[in-house]
């Protein structure tokens, strides 16, 4: 009789423990899955940071500040000029040429700034020229060129090509601004 009661008690206890194990199993699995997801997310974040650091290092190696020139484009126009293409020359040598899609033009018109060029030039005096093609006043094809002479010293140089609406003259205005 004693053996029977012990056996029944053992089975009862074993059944309760098994039920608890079954109830805890999803919690353990969810905890492991959550931990794994956190680990993956942490690794992704570390990878993004490493990629950013490598990009900065690559830029520093490829474009040291003593020879670096960056040219940016901004558009504050829309009524008088719609940009189609830009060609950029440094010392009469073409360094870049862009044809714009409708989405890119819209992004620039909403305040976006595009890096047209980043490269190396020697210290000294240089001429930067930009040739813009687009649709101007009265929906006519509009071509315009603008040039600036600047002196490159030992620091990095940044120049912005601005395209603006000039409401007084009813013409678009193109200018370089040293940053």
Low-confidence stretches: 3-9, 16-22
What is the CATH architecture assignment of the largest domain? Sandwich
The strand order across the widest sheet is 4-1-7-8
- The average pLDDT is 81
Number of domains: 2
Q: What is the molecular shape?
A: flat
The major β-sheet equals:
4 strands, mixed
Radius of gyration (CA) equals 32 Å
* Alpha carbon gap, first and last residue: 97 Å
CATH topology description of the largest domain: Immunoglobulin-like
Molecular structure report:
With 179 residues, the protein is of the alpha+beta class. It has two helices and eight strands. The strands form two sheets. Strands 4-1-7-8 form a four-stranded mixed β-sheet. A four-stranded antiparallel β-sheet has the order 3-2-5-6, with no helix packed on it. The longest helix is centred in the first third of the chain and has 61 residues.
């Amino acid at each position: 009789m004693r053996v029977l009661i012990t056996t029944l008690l053992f089975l009862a206890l074993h059944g309760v423990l098994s039920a608890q194990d079954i109830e805890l199993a999803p919690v353990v699995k969810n905890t492991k899955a959550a931990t794994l997801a956190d680990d993956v997310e942490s690794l992704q974040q570390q990878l993004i940071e490493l990629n950013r650091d490598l990009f900065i290092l690559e830029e520093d190696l490829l474009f040291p500040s003593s020879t670096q020139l960056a040219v940016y484009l901004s558009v504050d126009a829309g009524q008088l000029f719609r940009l189609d293409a830009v060609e950029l020359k440094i010392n009469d040598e073409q360094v870049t040429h862009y044809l714009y899609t409708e989405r890119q033009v819209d992004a620039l018109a909403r305040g976006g700034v595009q890096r047209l060029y980043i490269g190396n030039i020697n210290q000294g005096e240089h001429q930067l020229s930009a040739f813009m093609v687009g649709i101007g006043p009265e929906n006519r094809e509009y071509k315009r060129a603008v040039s600036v002479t600047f002196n490159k010293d030992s620091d990095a140089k940044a120049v912005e090509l601005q395209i603006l609406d000039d409401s007084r003259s009813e013409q678009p205005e193109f200018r370089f601004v040293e940053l």
